[in-house]
Amino acid sequence: MATNHERTDEQERRSTIHAAAIAVFSAQGFAATSMADIATAAGISRPALYQYFANKRDIFASAFAALIDESVDRALAALKAPGSVAEQLDGLLQRFDGDLWEGMAASAHSEEILQTKNELAVDPWAPSLERLHKGLAAYVRRQGATRARSSEWTDLLELSPKGFKIDRPSVATYRRRLTALANGVAAALTASSG
Q1: Would you write out the chain's pLDDT as a tens digit for each of its 194 residues?
Q2: Which of 55, 56, 82, 168 has a Cα at 20 to 30 A from 122?
Q3: How far apart are CA 42 and CA 39, in angstroms?
C-alpha cells in the first residue's frame, strides 16, 4: 500500500514529466517528439517514463489536462481576488484564456498542437472546464444575475474568447479583447444589480 509520501513523489514526478512534455511539444511539435525526447527533458530514462505513461498521446493528454486544470485554478482564484467585478472577470479571462493563448502563440507548432488536442478521442480536460463553468456561473449569480441571465453571461464569457482568436491576433491584442469583454459584462452586471 502506497503512503501519502509515495503518492506525493509520484505526483511530483508526473508534474515534472508534464512540464517537460509541454516544453518539448511546444518546441518540436507533436509528430517530431519522441518518448526519448520527453524522457530526456524530464531527466528520467525511457523505461521509467513508461512506468507513468503508455505512449506520447497519453502524455500529451495528461500534460494538457494538468495545464488546463492549473489554468482553471488560477482563473477561479482571480474571481476571489480583491477588486471590482470588471477586475475579477478580467483576471479570470486573462488567467485562463489569455495565458493559454500566450503559451500557444509562443510555439511555432501551435496549429499541430491544437489539431492533436482535437483528435484525442477522450476529452481529459472536460472535468476542469466543467469546474470553470460552474465557478463562473456561481460568481455571476452572486453579482445579482438571475439563473437565466447567469447562463447567458457565462456563455458569453466562455465562448467569446474563442471567436477573439479567429484572426490569430497578437497576444497583446487578444488580451485587450478579453479586458473589453470583462468590462462590458461587468458594466451590464453592475447596472442590472443596482
Answers
A1: 445 555 688 899 999 999 999 999 999 999 999 999 999 999 999 999 999 999 999 999 999 999 999 999 999 999 999 999 999 999 999 999 999 999 988 899 988 998 888 787 567 888 999 999 999 999 999 999 888 888 999 999 999 999 999 999 999 999 999 999 999 999 999 887 65
A2: 168
A3: 5
d(CA 46, CA 98): 34
* 6, containing H or E segment: helix 4-28
| Beta-carbon count within 10 A of 122 CB | 9
The domains located in the chain, with CATH, are: 57-193 (1.10.357)
Instruction: Give SS3 for 110.
Output: helix
